[in-house]
Amino acid sequence: MRYVVFGAGAVGGVIGGRLHAAGRDVVLVARGDHLRALQADGLHLLTPDGEERHAVPAVGSIGELDLSADDVVLLTMKSQDTVAALDELAAVAPPDIAVVCAQNGIANESAALRRFRHVYGLCVILPSQFTAPGVVVQQSWPSAGVLDLGCYPTGTDARAEAIAADLEAASFRAAAEPAIMRNKCRKLLMNLGNALDALCGWEARSSDLYKEAQAEGMAAFAAAGLDVQTADEEAARREGGVSLKPVAGQERGGSSSWQSLARGTGSIETDYLNGEVVLLGRLHGVPTPVNEALQRLANEAARTGRAAGSVPLEEVAARLH
Questions:
Q1: d(C-alpha 127, C-alpha 57), whole Å
Q2: Alpha helices in 148-288 (DSSP H)
Q3: pLDDT tens-digit series, residues 68-98
Q4: Side-by-side strand order, sheet with 118-125
Q5: For residue range 228-280, what is the model confidence (pLDDT) as tens digits?
Q6: Topology of 184-229+240-318 in CATH?
Q7: Deepest of 13, 40, 62, 303, by most Cβ within 10 A of its Cβ?
Q8: What CATH topology corresponds to 2-178?
């Protein structure tokens, strides 16, 4: 079984690097300076225990690979890039290839299932950063993170069990979970603060706006009939395995959305985080003004190149009126 990490940034780089270190067959799909650095000097993985270098094969497009039904494609790009990536993949991959959505949000799996028969949801609890071409930082300790997965929409199978076993061997905490979308709904609720810390800084996660955004999310999920993993269940899964630990020479940044603004990528994942709550609210008659304001402000900040953490919390609150 070969793992094709499609979108080898922070999350994909750490997963790919750890799997490769555990002796699994891995290839990374990257682009630009990152690709050139990977091909020239390997993947530099910085962890709380020190620096590792892994000579993981890397290519510039999914079309360069001879894909088969024995491959497992891990989608690790941001959710706003999923549809374009699936279009590329569908042009070259057999329809029975395994596609694992190792991404935030709950919309990627249904998009993948339109094109492929075997789709898996993977809930990513993996503090990580992309800091320079060829360099990713794993900030979780003592395990590399929690990566539970299951068939979409429900169930498990032998392949899910095999992937979970490989991830466990690669220093992650992983299990095949038959109701994986419960986990991903809980993660989405947590990610509703990503826009806040991207805009206003990490301390904004302790504000009332974050609590209000999550309350709207819970109301929208309930109206949509979505089952959600409890906060206690999520905390128990992390306990003893995932905690932030300093990495030498690296400062902890914010969420993945904060990283998008900090790097000036021009896009942000908010349409599939706060925007998912807005969508469900509109479909089921639930007001979601806080999430709508965060969605609009985060997209504006990404388009205009506004610096991460530069928006006063009062400016976000003013958008509610």
A1: 24
A2: 158-169, 180-191, 194-200, 208-224, 231-238, 256-263, 274-284
A3: 999 999 999 999 999 999 999 999 999 999 9
A4: 58-59, 25-29, 2-6, 71-75, 98-101, 118-125, 146-151
A5: 999 999 999 999 888 889 999 998 888 999 999 999 999 999 999 999 999 99
A6: N-(1-d-carboxylethyl)-l-norvaline Dehydrogenase; domain 2 (1.10.1040)
A7: 13
A8: Rossmann fold (3.40.50)
